[in-house]
Amino acid sequence: MNSSYGYKLIVNITQVSNEKDASIVPPSPDSFDFILRKYAYPIIIILGFLGNTISAFVFLNPQLRRYSCNIFLATRSLSDNGVLFSLLVAWLDFIYVRIFHVPVVCQLTVFLSYICSFLSVWCIVCVTIDNYIRMCYPSIVNLYCKSKYAFVILSVLITISLGIYNIPLWTTHVTVIAGNYYCWPKQEHIDILYILTYVDTALTFVFPLSAILICMSLLICKAVRSHQRSTTCRELYSSRTWPSSTSHYLKVTKLLFAVSVTFLILHTPTHVIKLKSVIEAFAGNPQQLSGVVKTLNYVFQVMYCLNFAVNFIVYYTFGNNFRQIVAKSFCSISNCKIFNKRSRDSIPSADTMSADILEQDSML
């Protein structure tokens, strides 16, 4: 029996349940699959934990946590750590540290993976909508884009996720197969797990992808129109008498574009293959993956894991204020002298930091 079963269960519990009666052969140590899983995953998990923890620390800064977008991003960082933890348990199972196949650990690991994946995806949707409001309806920003509303929305999302994803807690168990203990779906609940797979595909791929693409399109159109108006006005007025807001729109759009596109690139490919399998299963005509598709799927699974680990790099690269706060915080902790007077003057003060981030870098 393949000890990497735990990872397959986390990625697609229904696909695994269909393999129960099949002959599962452990991957060869020289195979691409084995090398990728053994060496790529621990690097992704360790670096992801570190980056997400730093990101959550920054977004929960007293000056930032008053705004809804930063609450969503902090929640996303913590949720991503939850996904990485479940992947760590699965990776330990891959190297024959079999804590995944212990009662309670089995159910909680799958449960945590579902919950945190759901919250991570919908936090991105919330941030996208938040920025759409800031750009297209600035007059209502102070009314709706507040942390108290973010907490209400997160409470609703958590309640929904608990209501839907509690299923693995009572549909999986530890059973003996071929003389070994395995965390495995209960045979009498296979139909329920099929339904869960369909629902999860819709909630973590179809609906969020549609919402993000629509908001991104509207935001880009808004930025283009704003640039056109600004160009026209500059032809009629001097730059001194006509202050431009184009840089603000372009900056926010750039940050949104970076976060959203990173999500789409890393999150989408493996879900496309999963959606194909779901449609085939629903049609009653499941097909085995070809060798090329299997290899691509291994790569796509690594990309999917990266989706929960590389956000710090995106924030640090495209978020000016995020980068400054990180540098200032860690230099303060280590008492380093990297910042000269010019650098200190460029970092927002406690009184102006929130306003600056709200107006220009509301996302990051």
From TrEMBL:
It is found in: Membrane. Coiled coil: none annotated. It is a multi-pass membrane protein. Keywords: G-protein coupled receptor, Membrane, Receptor, Transducer, Transmembrane, Transmembrane helix. InterPro entries: GPCR_Rhodpsn, GPCR_Rhodpsn_7TM. Residues 51-315 form the G-protein coupled receptors family 1 profile domain. Pfam families: 7tm_1 (PF00001). GO terms for cellular component: plasma membrane. The keyword Transmembrane applies. Its main location: membrane. GO terms for molecular function: G protein-coupled receptor activity. The chain crosses the membrane at residues 39-60, 81-99, 111-129, 149-172, 192-220, 249-267, 298-318. PANTHER family: G-PROTEIN COUPLED RECEPTOR, G-PROTEIN COUPLED RECEPTORS FAMILY 1 PROFILE DOMAIN-CONTAINING PROTEIN. This is G-protein coupled receptors family 1 profile domain-containing protein. It comes from Mytilus edulis (Blue mussel). The lineage of its organism: Eukaryota, Metazoa, Spiralia, Lophotrochozoa, Mollusca.
